């Protein structure tokens, strides 16, 4: 008898709780998904996140050099290409970047002065 009561109770709960018209019903599968993974499925990636620059770099690399390489692929304006060519060899690593910071700043100021709108986006980033 107890068994029959449990099955009747289960049937009663299934019948008594209909889905509401303005609500979604999530069916849980066997695999659990984290909250962040669920958000990534629903939301577009933010423009503020720069996933390619989030990783750790070694002592012989610099984020500045990686950003120059990334923008070189995206921006072909003459002012930016000249700036990238000038600073690429002296910014390959963090020690080189620190050592040549004044030269890089001078190249950047010169590039800003002669840049058009397309080059400014990459130079100011």
Write a brief structural summary.
The protein is mainly α. Helix content is 58%, strand content 0%. The chain folds into two domains: 2-42, no CATH class; 51-124, no CATH class.
Question: How would you explain this protein's 3D organization?
Answer:
This protein has 125 residues and is mainly α. The protein has 2 domains: 2-42, no CATH class; 51-124, no CATH class. The chain has 7 helices and no strands. The chain has helices at residues 2-16, 35-42, 63-74, 78-88, 94-99, 101-113, 117-124. Helix 3 runs antiparallel to helix 4 and helix 4 runs antiparallel to helix 6 (101-113).
**End-to-end gap:** 73 Å
- What's the Cα radius of gyration? 28 Å
The helix count comes to 7
Low-pLDDT runs of 5+ residues are: none
Strand content: under 5%
Q: How many separate domains make up the residues? A: 2
Quaternary organisation of the protein chains: single chain
Helix/strand-derived class?
mainly alpha
Outline: elongated
Q: Number of DSSP strands?
A: 0
N-to-C SSE string, H for helix and E for strand:
HHHHHHH
What is the percent of helical residues?
55-70%
Mean pLDDT: 75
Largest sheet: none
Which helices and strands occur, and which strands form pairs?
Elements: H1 2-16, H2 35-42, H3 63-74, H4 78-88, H5 94-99, H6 101-113, H7 117-124
Helix pairs in contact: 3-4, 4-6
């Amino acid at each position: 008898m107890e068994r029959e009561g449990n099955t009747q109770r289960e049937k009663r709960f299934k019948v008594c709780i209909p889905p509401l018209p303005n609500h979604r019903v999530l069916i849980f599968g066997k695999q659990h998904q984290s909250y962040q993974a669920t958000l990534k499925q629903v939301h577009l990636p933010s423009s503020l996140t720069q996933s390619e620059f989030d990783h750790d770099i070694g002592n012989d690399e610099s984020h500045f050099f990686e950003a120059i390489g990334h923008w070189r692929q995206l921006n072909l304006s003459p002012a930016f290409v000249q700036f990238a060519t000038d600073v690429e060899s002296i910014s390959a690593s963090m020690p080189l970047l620190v050592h040549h910071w004044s030269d890089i700043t001078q190249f950047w100021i010169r590039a800003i002065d002669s840049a058009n709108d397309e080059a400014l986006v990459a130079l100011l980033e």
